[in-house]
Amino acid sequence: MELVGEEKKIQALFSELRLADNQTLPSFSATWSRAQERGLRPRRVFNLPFAVATALLICALVSLAWWSTRWQHTQQPNVVALTPSGVVPDLKPSEVVPAGGKIPAPSGSEPKKPISAVHRFKVSARLRADRLAARQEANLLAAAKKQATAISSWRSPTATLLSSANDDLLKSLPQLNESTNDLKSFLPNTPK
Amino acid sequence: MDIAELKAELETLHSASFGWALSCCRRDRGEAEDVLQTVYLKILEGKARFRGEAAFKTWLFAVIRKTAAGEYRRKLLRSLKLISGAEQPDDRASPELGPLATFENSEVQIRFQSALKSLPARQREALHLVFYEDLSLREAAEVMGISIGSARQHYERGKKRLRETLVTAEVAYGISWRRKENPGAV
After folding, report:
1. Considering only CA atoms, which of B22, B42, B19, B23 is closest in space to residue B32?
2. Which residues of chain A from 105 to 134 reach within 8 Å of chain B, CB to CB?
3. For chain B, what is the domain count?
4. Last residue of a domain, one of B41, B68, B95
5. What CATH number does residue B17 fall under?
């Protein structure tokens, strides 16, 4: 590289600097041997910052998983509460959760593709979550049904006051083709 | 290249390597020595391996540059840790400068070095590689890991800025000198 004018001045300044640096240059053999010594020194296997960072990461992951399950639990009752009271669909738990806990395959059979482990894990997790949600829903429905039956079979404590000895007479109708005498027999204090 | 050959090559380039390490460490001699040791250790352990893709000097300088950057980051982290704790005295002994002390005390060199320090890192590196290490711009670009166009830009801008800083410093120095000589003059 050819230097001109100003560049030569800068070059001169750098040359001076190089000369000065060379005066305090550490010897190569000393630097080399120190590097070798450093290489022989046993290294600390346990890395504290790395361990702390890993522990924090694990804690964060665990709390996230716990929070997500808690969130699912809190969401389920809200959904049931939204259904109108008294209207209890006649569903059986066996209808909600398929037998064997497996979701039936779609009718149109598609050619099977190789599934990755991650995809399989995701699918199984989703299935597990669906199964759990269905079971919870079935339990809630069964409880609601039981409550509805109890309400329908309820009787008032004053219901016995409404019954009397002449219930048969009051609650039955005379037939049209009956004779007058027979009709008279219904009347009290009348000789037959 | 076996270890004996490597050692011979490193010995030949030792002074140039130290100069480059000094520049990468903002002229901190102790840090430059540490960096150079780390570089030699990396080479000894085979962590840095010369594959012959570039000239040996270019490869070595690139390793020094990366190592210095890593050491700087580590030092920064350590200093951040120390901020919260008690201040620890610097255990690194100040190097005995000897004749350098007198040399560096010369006004021109002081101004030149402070002007160099004021330059952005890339510009300073480009100037150092070209003027101090006598590398071509292409080689400088290889060491810095940038394109030759970028290296040229850093070089040109660095020169311009260095000149401006030196002129400003000279003017300031002239004024202060005149003040010392004749306080009523300025």
Report:
1. B22
2. none
3. 2
4. B95
5. 1.10.1740.10
- A2 contacts on B by Cβ (under 8 Å): none
Considering the domain architecture, whether residues B80 and B159 belong to the same structural domain is answered as no
Quote the pTM value: 0.53
What value, to the nearest 5°, has the Cα angle with vertex B179 and ends B173 and B183? 180
Q: Which of B11, B22, B41 sits opposite A21 (nearest CB)?
A: B22
Coil, strand, or helix at residue B7? helix
- pLDDT for residue A87: 45
In this structure, the answer to whether residues B33 and B76 fall within a common structural domain is yes
Distance in Å, alpha carbon of B69 to nearest chain A alpha carbon: 19
pLDDT tens per residue, range A164-182: 877 777 777 767 776 777 6
Q: Is A141 helix (H, G, I), strand (E, B) or coil?
A: helix
- Chain A closest-CA separation from residue B180 CA (Å): 26
Residues of A in contact with B113 (CB under 8 A): 17
Which residue carries 């300025």 as its tokens? B186
If asked whether residues B84 and B137 sit together in one domain, one would say no
Q: Domain boundary at B53, B77, B95, which?
A: B95
* Residue bearing the bigger pLDDT, A55 or A102: A55
Task: Name the average pLDDT for chain A.
Answer: 76
Positions of chain B with pLDDT under 50: 87-96, 185-186
